[in-house]
Amino acid sequence: MKNGLDLLRSQAALFEGSDVPLGMDEYQQFTRQTAQDQRPGIEGLSFTLLGLFGETGSLLSELKKKQRDRDAYVGYHDSVLEELGDCLWYFANTALRAGLDLSLVAHRAMERLDGWTYHGRAGARTFVALQKPKAELVGPGTGPEFERRLIALAGKVGHLLEDFSVGRIDANGDAFSADLVDIFRALVAAADDAQVSLDEAAQRNIAKALDRWPLRRAWSPSFDEDFDQDERLPRRIIMSFREKDINGKKYVIQRCNGINIGDRLTDNRVEPDDYRFHDVFHLAYAAILGWSPVIRALFRVKRKSKPLVDENQDGARAILIEEGVSTWIFNHAARLHDFRNVKSLDYGLLKAIRQLVEGYEVEERPLWQWELAIPEGFRIFREMRVYRAGTVTADLDAHTITFEVAE
User: Fold this and answer.
1) Which of 73, 177, 358, 393 is least enclosed, having the fewest CB within 10 Å?
2) The whole model's pTM is what?
């Protein structure tokens, strides 16, 4: 995956040279472009404040986990950078909604040091200029200074929310500005004591945001584009599903081009939950992600001309991974009415999927494609639950999946 700055430059065309540092105000405008909640006024502001409070809590949680697990928590550095980047996003967007440039907030924040030695430059307009050189930042620790800085940051954010909740800042822009200045000072101080780069945190945050909410969507070539026709997933799959009762037990039979596809499926569960229709999820993965070892096996189009691809990407373990992803998401969706009326998926779910498929070709697919494939699969699944039969068309070129009721 490209780093955040490269993605920002390529998608937003904000820069020309690759050596241009990330500007605070440019990053702040990026938060405008990727904000999913566009409500104006108090409602929009309350959303970003809740996000800022939540991400600050997550940053504290990472420190707590590191103190508890010590050497066992090997992802601490990346987690701190991720949570710090999320804090920056919500803070920058909050300042934007208040009509304050992030560079102006930074300038005011550095006017009073309050017992903290500022390592940056006067009049800083980039994140790099806020701290000592990145090469001197040795990475996050768990010492008492960092702990105190994070607690102080949480206290400042809590104070802003208290002011907001009682209406103290509704008509008092100076009070709001003062709270934001205090928070930003605490944020930079915490980054200094943690020995992490705010510039790196912001860049990673850009990459994370564009992975899920790109400024424009672009589809990558199919994984099997360079293979012979008989080793490619069919670009248009029309599969019929029919539920059948055999000796009091319900099965689902699937047919394509007049031929039965795969085994008769049951729920494989004591309490029925209609999981026997779950191949619609694999069809959704094939249509939108261009990936499904399960569908590839069913249609006997494994890429045997390249043994390493056949073994590692189309083999039994890849199939088990896809089945595991499908089952895990299904259990998660059961608590959310099968994603009915869900506008966006939980980021923790998407992140876990990315971890589950690590090492497989689908790891390259951006999160926005998963966030499209999963609800689309469940849209078809909900139709199946109602009609108990129908025809599903997966179009791998158009990246769509549709359902027709059986006649």
Assistant:
1) 358
2) 0.88
